[in-house]
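Renewal narrative, Specific Aim 1. Our central claim is that a sequence can be written position by position from structural information alone. The example that follows is taken directly from our test logs and has not been curated for this report. It begins with the structure tokens describing the chain, in the order in which they were read.
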């Protein structure tokens, strides 16, 4: 078409409808790609990103459909290889689904920020549950002090690499050695605590990355 730069796409929303071309139709990504070029020419970057996301969805649908058709026609000896490709692609679809659920494809910073806030309470519950047997042995430490120490553990690990340094050796010793069984040795946290700390750091890193990515995409100028 001519004069595509004069088209106003303000408020337009693109998604797969219940009728018409299905996501596994090979024409869908081609048409979305052409539409995205028009959005790029009109400097509508929000619509361009949305079209790119829908285009990748369509490409994944086309690839899955082709693998299924190839699996139906393939000899028995070749089917394990096709199934492996299908499973690998299915794993990638799951990753993209989580990316959408956690950060709306890097377009929403409020959602990962809220999840980071909620994760502190979730991991605090896990830490308190694992350390509950040790709390009963803490004769010289009050319950309030121990509860604050557990909160500090959850808050510190919500900020990867830096926040954990705020928990000094004395607090760790009161958490993991309330009856001073460690003596002069450095306290070793229970296995469950180590696993939760790793999980919380991974979750926090991912959510902080999504927050930064969303802010970067929002202020990006092309």
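The sequence written for that structure reads:
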């Amino acid at each position: 078409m001519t004069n595509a730069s004069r088209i106003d796409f303000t408020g337009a929303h693109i998604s797969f409808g219940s009728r018409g071309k299905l996501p596994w139709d090979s024409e869908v990504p081609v048409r979305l790609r052409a539409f995205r070029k028009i959005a790029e020419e009109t400097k509508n970057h929000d619509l361009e990103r949305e079209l790119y996301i829908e285009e990748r969805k369509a490409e994944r649908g086309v690839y899955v459909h082709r693998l299924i058709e190839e699996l139906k026609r393939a000899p028995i000896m070749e089917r394990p290889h096709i199934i492996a490709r299908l499973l690998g692609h299915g794993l990638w679809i799951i990753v993209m689904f989580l990316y959408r659920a956690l950060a709306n494809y890097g377009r929403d910073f409020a959602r990962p920020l809220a999840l980071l806030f909620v994760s502190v309470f979730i991991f605090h519950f896990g830490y308190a549950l694992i350390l509950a047997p040790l709390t009963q042995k803490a004769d010289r430490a009050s319950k309030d002090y121990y509860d604050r120490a557990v909160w500090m553990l959850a808050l510190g690990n919500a900020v990867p690499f830096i926040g954990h340094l705020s928990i000094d050796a004395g607090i760790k010793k009161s958490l993991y050695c309330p009856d001073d069984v460690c003596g002069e040795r450095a306290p070793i946290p229970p296995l469950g605590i180590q696993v939760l700390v790793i999980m919380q750091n991974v979750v926090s890193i991912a959510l902080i990355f999504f927050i930064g990515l969303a802010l970067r995409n929002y202020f990006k100028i092309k």
